[in-house]
From TrEMBL:
It comes from Rhodococcus artemisiae. Its cofactor is Zn(2+). This is Small ribosomal subunit biogenesis GTPase RsgA. Its EC number is 3.6.1.-. Zn(2+) binds at residues 274, 279, 281, 287. NCBIfam families: ribosome small subunit-dependent GTPase A. Belongs to the TRAFAC class YlqF/YawG GTPase family. RsgA subfamily. Monomer. Associates with 30S ribosomal subunit, binds 16S rRNA. Binds 1 zinc ion per subunit. GTP binds at residues 143-146, 193-201. It holds the Pfam family RsgA_GTPase. Signal peptide: none annotated. PANTHER family: SMALL RIBOSOMAL SUBUNIT BIOGENESIS GTPASE RSGA. Residues 104-249 form the EngC GTPase domain.
């Protein structure tokens, strides 16, 4: 169990459950209604007990769970999800307030960026916001360095959108940078990135053997196939465990206030000097952030991205916060009332 991250603190918190003949286990793969778990007695296939409670977490890869062992008459069952120390969470594509846990109890989030493709700054910022909000340590892993024509300037370009995050440059093809990568990816490591970024190739290098399926990238648009079909936890030979994930086509934000503050740390720092405490960095006088843009210390693209992700985050939060939802709708209603008043005016002409 220690190979999968079980420690003394977990043991102490789980002690009361042992009296009920439950044993701890870690979810290495989760499916609907079923989990592959590793326990003190070895791997097991367990059924997930449904309580019907909406607020009860569904087991996710990386979760620590309480398992009732199998008997001659019954299958092993997962009866409880233990408290998560960290969790990588994104918003679902639906218009509901639901969120999706991509990985639980991770120590390091590796944001994987391919150097063989044009950089998408907004995508990197989104993934970093999720990583910082998770409570784990973000590391930006630049892959396919052997296919980058100007490594120095590209590295500097990524560094500008990843303040505070450690960065490593790697090539699975040549082996360059893999020792440095192994040194900074510790504990439970989750790989996040789009299809074709090189997550599975990097994962195989970290695992020491080809356990993860890899696929070719289309030359027309640089996109790859989803060769990883599910999230799975695998022990690494140097210690720790690796959690590979399918390529992320969409990265919806879900309550990432702190994650955005960390991702846009320079804007957060500049905002301390704004004249107004609630400055939105739009048109307000005495805005230190806008001054930084005018003076060339902050790019307009960076500020626009910050505003865009803030709006998205506020919209996601409004799905569960009635008061916030009303505040967001108020400007629209004011505009509607204004238009109606104009139309009722005797001077209005079509």
């Amino acid at each position: 169990m220690t190979d999968y991250g079980w420690d003394a603190e977990r043991e102490r918190s789980f002690a009361p459950s042992r009296s009920g003949e439950l044993v701890p286990g870690r979810v290495v793969r989760a499916e609907r209604g079923l989990c592959d778990v590793v326990t003190e007695a070895g791997p097991a296939r367990a059924v997930v007990v449904s309580s019907g409670a909406d607020d009860r977490p569904t087991p996710c890869t990386g979760d620590w769970v309480a398992v009732r062992p199998a008997t001659t008459a019954t299958s092993a069952t997962v009866v409880e999800v233990l408290e998560r120390r960290t969790a990588v969470v994104r918003s679902t594509a639906s218009r509901t307030s639901r969120s999706q846990v991509l990985a639980a109890n991770v120590d390091t989030v590796a944001v994987v960026v391919s150097l063989a493709d044009p950089l998408k700054h907004g995508r990197i910022e989104r993934m970093l916001a999720l990583a910082w909000e998770s409570g784990a340590t973000p590391v930006v892993v630049l892959t396919k360095a052997d296919r980058c024509a100007d490594l120095g300037s590209t590295f500097a370009e990524v560094a500008e959108v990843a303040p505070g995050a450690e960065m490593v440059v790697t090539s699975a093809a040549t082996g360059a940078g893999l020792d440095a990568c192994t040194a900074v990816l510790s504990g439970t490591v989750v790989l996040l990135g789009p299809s074709g970024a090189g997550k599975s190739s990097l994962g195989n290098r970290l695992l020491g053997e080809d356990l993860l399926a890899t696929g070719a990238v289309r030359g027309s648009d640089g996109k790859g196939r989803h060769t990883t079909a599910w999230r799975e936890l695998l022990p690494m030979p140097h210690g720790g465990v690796l959690l590979d994930t399918p390529g992320l086509r969409g990265v919806g934000l879900h309550e990432v206030d702190e994650g955005l503050d960390q991702t846009f740390a320079e804007i957060t720092e500049l905002a301390r000097n704004c004249r107004f405490a609630d400055c939105a960095h739009g048109t307000e006088p005495g805005c230190a952030v806008l001054s930084a843009v005018e003076e060339g210390h902050l790019t307009r693209r960076r500020l626009d991205s910050y505003h865009r992700l803030q709006r998205e985050n506020a919209h996601a939060a409004s799905r569960t916060d009635a008061r916030l939802r009303a505040e967001l709708e108020r400007p629209k209603k004011q505009i509607t009332r204004h238009i109606r008043a104009i139309k009722k005016s005797p001077n209005f002409k079509v």
